């Protein structure tokens, strides 16, 4: 695939109007902990073990991941599973299936409660290297991408990620399009994350999640050539039938349009790095589409 460039910016490979990535988060918490959110609306007394939350969190690596894999494979949708290394240890068969099915597996700390924001640089590096060790054991290769749990990095995370050999890094909330970042420790590709993962509709209507992504896709496709959309959900919630049905719907909808580049994070990042796409691309797109 070749890059089509002009004085105002760039175009996606083969003239695609939009690049779409699917992020599937596979998460597990340490010990007998679970996610700090669930479908239950009654909070337990402080210090009480929340077994419902714990078992709710287990669902992702036991069942949800398999339903998501089935839907992604049936829709021929290459995706990136962003996984806590511990969840990979709990579900090595799922990791093997991800790779055999043509999906990427990226790093997401060791457990979901091992947050970078609470660590000093040495502790951060130790966690990152621990994750790399799990990847070497279970995949035979280094992970290419990193996304911090709850998107809570420190001022040091970016440089450590670059220094340990990653290709892409996803802890960005201030950009629309991917671009190359010179960290001083190496070049990373910055990949924007999503503002609307599946847990936003946890106690609402799962169709709202579908509507948000459909409306966003429709707007970008019609109005902003060379745009980017990150569709995000969690194995422990998005893998349940009520949410997985919406993933199936949005993939079938998007695949009905021409000139859509449905791509894994690492493949997109490698294209951006090879073509040396800079931060100017975020602004130039609007001039190409007539803004300003």
Description:
This protein has a single domain (4-31, 47-288), classed as Alpha-Beta Barrel (TIM Barrel), CATH 3.20.20.370. It has helices at residues 51-74, 85-90, 92-100, 121-139, 157-163, 206-223, 235-238, 241-254, 265-274, 280-288; strands spanning 4-6, 9-11, 18-26, 80-83, 104-107, 145-146, 168-172, 179-182, 187-192, 227-234, 260-262. Strands 3, 4, 5, 10 and 11 form a 5-stranded parallel beta sheet that branches. It has a 4-stranded mixed beta sheet with strand order 6-7-9-8. Helix 1 packs parallel to helix 8 (241-254) and helix 6 (206-223) packs parallel to helix 8 (241-254). It starts with a strand and ends with a helix. It is α/β, with parallel strands linked by helices.
